[in-house]
Request: fold
Amino acid sequence: MNAGSRSAADGPIVQVRGLVRRFTLRGVLNGVDLDIRRGEFVALLGRSGSGKSTLLRALADLDHEAQGSGTIIVPERLSVVFQDARLLPWMRVLDNVVLGLKGPDARARGLRALGEVELAGRARSWPYELSGGEQQRVALARSLVREPQLLLADEPFGALDALTRLRMHALLGRLSAVHKPAVLLVTHDVDEAVALADRVVVLADGRLAADMAVPKGRGGRVDLADAVALRRRLLSLLGVMGLRDRTSVSDHEEKLTIEQ
Amino acid sequence: MNAPVAPCLELTATIAFEVVPLDCAEEEVAPAGARKARRLGRGDKVALGWLLGPFLLLLAWTTGSAAGLIDARVLPSPWATVATAVGLIRDGRLQANLAVSALRAGEGFAWGVLAASVLGLVAGLSQLGDYAIDGLVQIKRSIPTLALIPLLVLWFGIGETMKVTVIAISVFIPMYIQLHTALRGIDVRHLELAETLGLSRWRFIRQVVLPGTVPGFTTGLRFGVMGAWLALVVVEQLNATSGIGYMINLARTYAQSDVILVGLVVYALLGLASDAAVRWLEARVLVWRRTLAG
Reply:
């Protein structure tokens, strides 16, 4: 089941065992096991309400009030990118990026990180002066400047328009290739998951219902036919009906997102 | 549950660029004499337009006085009032009383802001402090400050201490409430961010909590300034021997309505000036906030 088991020598950096989380009456996570290897990009898919964010918040240790059990091992250096950029409005862009960083070279590192997201010129801007996509790039810089071993991203592009989202995909793909953090990307966009991740896991009924490696060809490019097949399997796992009947060739070029 | 299938993005863009301008062009060359939409808005804005009302009042006052329609004992004419003001300034009475009033209000204001800041921070930042302080303030809030005056007179006499205390309490209550609300209402998303960034408690307070309460603090300042002037007017009616209120009270005894009028104008100017000062401060410390007016 675990696609990562082939290279067990490089031990997992994230280990989740028997994770259970409950809210009032309903169980949201009913025993989740998940390993993520060093530098591995994992996309976590699931329908809305399936507990994707609950799992991510458990990994980020943000669920202080949650009821549940299980063990979680995560690396020390961990960054979170939220769906909203969460920039502090009273701090200029660079100050937001280096918030909480220590060391005399913090600002230089912050500027470098802003350069990586192509916003070096906006270091002195106020957050409200940036577009939504630019704000999310600042948030990405704020996460990457900490050189995280694990990057947790909770639908980071969900609030962006389609064109900006595509550009952000390219940026995140590029940056994760350079910095090589392990990434857990929570998303409901199957295409986003297939395009970016090495591995896709699907959360359903409080458990991991599927764990699939994304077939990558030379240069890390996803083979179109493989991607279409994988996407179809994922969509049916997510309970999107009627798509199995669609066989027209034009299908391959369409952009599909799951409606919530 | 069927996922709607959107056409590829490049295609959409091409269509949009080619078709939409054509559509627009067609609609713009509508035949002459076509129906014009009736404008239902409030009309255009004019700079300084708000001065129309005050100007009309001044006009009515001037013409009424000149025509003899207004009894000078009820309402002296504008020119008589100006002459009185000039006279009061010339013999130094206005400045002396103004200085006393401003000092009184300023002293009470300073104490009120200080107390509100200290107690507001203690109650807003710690749960124990909240239990110790907030309940008391909420009880006090239900008693109008001016109703405390008899008790304060018994405690502090009718001198400056009582007057400054009343003003300080009048400033303290709204300021404390604004500050406390701002501290309690700290955005939980910012709290989560601070936790994931591993901020220390001190850094969290200094870089996240306190800057976030500045808007509440400046709103509190504006309420506090209003409270200070209101309390000043009341305490200066109480056996004062100096101050604008004293000047007004004395004028009432001698039926000098022109002096009363000058005093009221001074109160208005003080209120406007202090509110403008707080707004100026607000604009300086809240540059990061996008406002509708900005």
User: Anything to note?
Assistant: The CA atoms of residues 179 and 217 of chain B lie 5 Å apart.
